[in-house]
Write the structure tokens for this entry.
Amino acid sequence: MQLNLQTVLSRQMIFNRTVIVTSKQGDIDGDGTKEHVFLTANKTPDSPFWRNITLVIQNGRTNQYEQVPMKNNTGYNPTLFLGDFTGNEGDDILVVIDTGGSGGSIYAYVFSYLNGQFMTIFNSDSFNESFQYDVHYENQYKVKVNSHYLKERYILDLTYKEQEYLSEIYNNDGILKAPIEGWVNPLSGLYPVDFNRDGIYELEAYQRIAGRYNADSLGFVQTVLKWNGKAFAPDRQNVAIFGEEI
């Protein structure tokens, strides 16, 4: 929706406690002129929680404002990153918001100016729906993580855990006392990384692996996503585990 209202932001600030949370400049539409990019939100009194987080772009040539909606627009610590994810010679926009949930999950969006309009080319809801896993404890101090999307399997070694932890789960011969299933949390980190040093960023996504309960962290699934011209597709996936003291 095109807005030709220079006073929109100031009016919101007066009546709705709306403030500019963060701002950056970049050539979003690739015309050689830098745009002003803002995240605005309603501040909650005496709290770091933000409501109605909105992406606002001021065109560098026309000075018109455009608001780009986000489905999930509440949370903590909203941040902006501008960089080229698509190779279209313009800056794309990465927005990340902490949900504040116990699993450390985030809301994340990437917006790009394609075919004359701003489009959402990544959102955390779709990512979480696609990247699903099974987590099963196995005999002999192992945990099996199956990645449905990539049809890959990872085996985690639990022998680094303290004996008290292992004895609650396993008999002395390494056999499970009872079946245990863990899970992989929704997206908890999304980072722009230019792995090829070619000026085009990839996305590195983190999902935390939980064991018997959420605080029982077993490691992270790390997925590198690369733009293929139509969507972000997985380039590779790894599992990172925690080390033990030596």
User: Anything to note?
Assistant: Helices lie at 8-16, 124-130, 163-169. Confidence is low (pLDDT under 50) at residues 1-6. The first helix runs from residue 8 to 16.
